[in-house]
Amino acid sequence: MKNNKLLAGLLPIMMVAGAANAAELYNKDGNKLDFSGQIEGNHYISDDKGEDGDNSFVRFGIRGETQVTEQIIGYGYYQTELTASSSENGGDNGSTTRYAFAGIKFGDAGSFDYGRNDGILYDVGGWTDVLPEFGGDSYQQTDVFMTQRAGNLATYRNKNFFGAVDGLDFAVQYQGRNDSGDRNKSDRNGDGWGMSTTYDLGMGLSVGAAYASSDRTYDQSQDHLGDRADGVSAGIKYDANDLYLAAIYGQTYNMNLYGDDFVANKTQNVELVAQYQFENGLQPSLAWVYSKGKDLGHDIGSKTYNSEELVNYIDVGANYHFNSNFTAKVDYKINMLDSSTFTEKAGISTDDIVSLAVVYQF
């Protein structure tokens, strides 16, 4: 029973960071070094040929920590991912850097780090990104401002409000420009900042909110939607007694991409998830993910669209944890979007996807 409760609590970490059962490589004289990994054989089944097929990958991470003084700790984390669907002769193994940051922690005064990390909006957005395969994609997008993983992030975090209020955490984040006009060679974001706060109320119940605002790059602003990109989110979750429930609501402005790299002037987003961990290792999961674009205000094809659903699916899935290192999972993304002129012109898929996978993690 205790082992399964531990699995339920650690599942989001195992799936996202692959570090729940990290192997300790070194621990001496205040210096620690852990190695973690996740090897996943994953196959998608869908009428959408862009999604159907092999989706296997491997992730490796390394986390270091050093005790500088009694109150000061230095730390760093790096994680990479290699895809397994490319041929050996293809010359492209899909190598990506998911995380790469280093920082320093000053006791109850908090921590500061810099590098490639999670954006501040993901402090709340991550609460529903716990599905067996899908989820966390109504407004959370990689390398899109501070909605999910992104680069050039400087983050200050404080736990338990300087040690004075148990469960009350807050964070402030600054993101430097990632612009094709500089060394980054891509139009991802201008300078921006954000903040978040979460409060553990006890008995498994937590609430949270986050906000971020950024300049848009010169090339981004050529769509005449505006010079700023803003996002706000709020959420609530319950995580106790083998039951996990979470709900988030978010709005973004001139921030989110949809279809073939169109930008929504405004989105309204809802994500709901419910999971239960049985003693035998089975963890069923049910979720709804929804995003509606408002005031889109630009032509797609020969027509101007203003209010359209961008994401709308019900997710039914399950994990089966054989133990803390090995999991089998199935996830069925039931796409609720109807095929239309808008989805076809914008390049939005309306097909269902089934994911079947086995995962080994350490």
From TrEMBL:
The principal location of this protein is membrane
CDD domains referenced in this protein's UniProt entry, alphabetically: gram_neg_porins
Q: Which Gene3D superfamilies match?
A: Porin (2.40.160.10)
Q: GO MF annotations for this entry?
A: porin activity
Which InterPro entries does the protein's record reference? Gram-neg_bact_OMP, Gram_neg_porin_domain, Porin_dom_sf, Porin_gammaproteobac, Porin_Gram-ve
Q: Which GO terms describe its cellular component?
A: cell outer membrane
Q: Where in the cell is it found?
A: Cell outer membrane
Q: Which UniProt keywords apply?
A: Membrane, Signal
What is the recorded membrane topology of this protein?
Multi-pass membrane protein
- One Pfam family, short name please? Porin_1
Q: Where is the signal peptide?
A: 1-22
At the top level, the lineage of the source is Bacteria
Q: Cross-referenced PANTHER family, in alphabetical order?
A: OUTER MEMBRANE PORIN F-RELATED (PTHR34501:SF2), PROTEIN YDDL-RELATED (PTHR34501)
Protein name listed in UniProt: Porin
Organismal lineage: Bacteria, Pseudomonadati, Pseudomonadota, Gammaproteobacteria, Enterobacterales
